Amino acid sequence: MRIISLFAVPLMIVGIVAFGMVKRINVYDSFVEGAKTGAENMLQIVAPLVGLMVAISMFRESGALRILGDILKPLTDTLKIPADVLPLALLRPVSGSGSIAIVNDIFKNNGPDSLAGKVASVMMGSTETTFYTVAVYFGAVGIKKIRHTVKSALLADLTGMLMAVMMTYILLA
Asked: DSSP label at 24?
């Protein structure tokens, strides 16, 4: 296995160059053109990403996440959603790194095998960083009118979150 992992990338590069030579494709020029396109796409999505990152930081640092969690606590208690998971449910559609930090806190405070730790783990695998994904993919292709995308994606996230709680109770509690 170690030999395979050692030679996998070099063999892939040699294979791509050999394929290009057989098909009479200038591999270097194709690489440069692809790198140029990638750099242009990166420049198109940097501004929305910077704005998103600033908004996420402001939201987390302002205490708004905690206040929103306090407001929703009666609902989460009724649905038997662990209180420690609520900040994750609120932040997950917005920030992947923020979500990972919250999961890390849940693991540190409750342990990974606690109910909150299990729900958080399943929730991370059942949801998406919706706003980041929409900003990156729609920004990369220049689509400005996203119509029902965000609403549909957030509904899918909500479904994933509720199913994560339900399936954790059924299968892992």
From this structure: T
